[in-house]
Amino acid sequence: MPSSHRHFDPEKALYWALLALLVWVPFPLGSNRGWAWAVMEVAAFALLAAWLALWAVGKVRMADPLRKAWPVFIVLGAWVIHQAVSIVPLPADWVAFLSPESARIHSITEILGIRRGAITISIEPHASRVALVKTLAYVTIFFLFLAVVNNRSRVLTAARVLVYAAVAHAVYAVLMHLSGVSEEHFGTLIMHGGSASGFYANRNHFAGLLEMTLAIGIGLLIAGLSDRVAGSWKVFFRHLIEWILSPKMLLRLSLCILVIALTTTHSRMGNTAFFSSLLIAGVIGIALSRYATRNTVILLASLVILDLTIVGSWFGVEKLAARLEATTVQDVQEREDPASHSLALIGDYPVFGAGPGTFYVAFPKYRPEKVVNFYDYAHNDYAQIAAETGVVGLGLLGLVVALTLAVALRAQWVRHDPLMRGMSFGCIMGVTSLLIHSWVDFNLQIPANAVYFMVLLALGWIALFLDRRMT
Question: Sign of the CA dihedral 33, 39, 45, 51?
């Protein structure tokens, strides 16, 4: 008698566990609390251990994107080692040679009677250890996504799960904003009345999440486009009805909801980065893709026209426009102050930085008297990464992004598969959006947003190397 029980697939279980982790990480304040990022780290390392165990016994194999991504793993490995060196106890003479300012800071703390038991390049080894473990978790999730999202069905499902999970966040954020209430979420009071921020303490970081998931959603729309031509009005209306009843309509409505939420965040740079990246990625996609359809051009035009002028006008685009118009030189200066004052900090720690996660410790020395606020972050990811890991660390991370964008651009040129072209578009648009936004914000310091950024990078490699037989 045939068994009705399906064979258990451990790799599929890992796939769904990874998706569950990705859905979870934005919920607890973007995982920007110690316990929340600890949950993320433990889950990521447990999934990696499970995958490695399965691989060791031959139950799973390395997917093509994972094998082909060896150049980026070499750079990521160098980036991790570069950070790890900063917490390794070294002789004082070595530290004085590698980072004279770090040696000087350690000598001051010893004079004050604070003995750390060892000399490290990092001026605050504990903070650097915490940051290093987070970095390892990000790299692990990048690895896992390439390892288990290893066929077209899983790519499609993963993209849909991320988009629809973001829609749930967006609906909650907009409803809370429209009701104008304040709510305590995991011990943090969130003021929803002024703008939509969802489960994030900062609306700009919620905007960052929406930018990335919108890019993935638009990639899905592009993947679903066809080049069917209606020969008559009857055929046209039949195609229209089919589209309305298809999952594409649900996806299009979902993107409208995400745009509404992004608009109601009233994040100036978040909205600017989104529409700028849509324009940049659209031009690149049309110029590079030999297989771009006429409908792709129509879709990209409709996204700008419909979302900005119709959807946005109903849900706060006027307030956003007012914020942009009211932006003064002083507003810009306040955002630029921490980054500009960080230049001297970077000059003192040019190679290794002050240590991962040490910005809040190092910055006060370089803050002029007129700047009275305490800054945990530089409000500029580039300045903060350079301050904490030196220009070498910034260069290594920049090389990871450059390699991925090159791969995604190539996918736009050579891939015929609509899904792979859509995912490469999502990678290019999402990464570009966050690179723009990072000039005035610190999205990459928020664990959930850093994780989603790594997912976008993984999609770039998947877009070029998965199922190459389908070209």
Answer: negative
